[in-house]
């Protein structure tokens, strides 16, 4: 089997690059940058079994591809890509929605089968290593985080505070809150002016960003209480942090293996996903790091031990980290038992991402080609 990756050059770094490298272990792969595709590239692409695309592919390239295409977009909220007058509009995918040999993979909360948008929760490795490498684990806690905007809107802030511990479908919660708390005047303004704070699309984008922002601040506060007793590495964007912790900038792909191999615990937060398994979690299992996750359903389905879940009540995260590090040998054995069982689940339930790709490419061939 041979597959081709088509991505924007600016995306070829970090976790995306790591995911591609993990998949190389199981299948022959080719890589193409969108702005460098020519006739020779298209000839090679059309000899692949299927194509993997990150978020977007231009129409002039798309019309010349005749094999199954699977597009990844972890946050495929359609109005952000269809309504060109939206303040959150990034790029149009209207031409992609019309393409017969193309489907989208996203998180469960954005699923829309009528438009060939499906959810996935596959793992990028079909068997995780159980042997512990002889690396010196001198980093007690690893935290990687991006930039999240916070809002001044009362409704957005209020919704975020109420739902800080909500690990169900966040869009359904938004719709319920929004319809209940919009005044008659605001409903009229919503109809007249899309780009104002009264539209649902604005509320969705602002609330999701704000929720992630306040969760990050809670995590930073918990980490700060651990800072005196443990060695902590914090990588990512700290431009609007409200809690100051020493930051080591962006973690470059070239340093991934070194930092992950040296870490004991990693915090794996989710952008409110209900099916996608976070890339930090997958890489943690590859490098024998204990992952701490929020109690979203995809992790419960993997039978992750209760000790490795945290939420946003009463400094829950700092308590969990402290307890694991004080009893590290004990919890590392619990973690290894989980990995043994997970390897069995992967084989039994075919949750290896490549199996999911095969099924989806067959679906395209059978229904659209």
What does this structure look like?
The chain has 369 residues and is of the alpha/beta class. Helices cover 42% and strands 14% of the residues. The chain has helices at residues 14-23, 39-45, 59-62, 79-82, 94-98, 154-162, 170-181, 184-192, 200-226, 256-261, 279-286, 297-300, 316-326, 328-349, 353-368; strands spanning 2-7, 28-33, 50-54, 69-72, 102-106, 117-119, 139-145, 232-236, 263-268, 290-293. Strand 3, helix 3 (59-62) and strand 4 form a beta-alpha-beta unit. Helix 13 packs across helix 14 (328-349). It is globular, with a radius of gyration of 21 Å. The relative contact order is 0.14. The model has no long low-confidence stretch (mean pLDDT 88).
Q: What characteristics describe this protein?
A:
single chain, 6-stranded parallel beta sheet, alpha/beta, 10 strands, 369 residues, 4-stranded parallel beta sheet
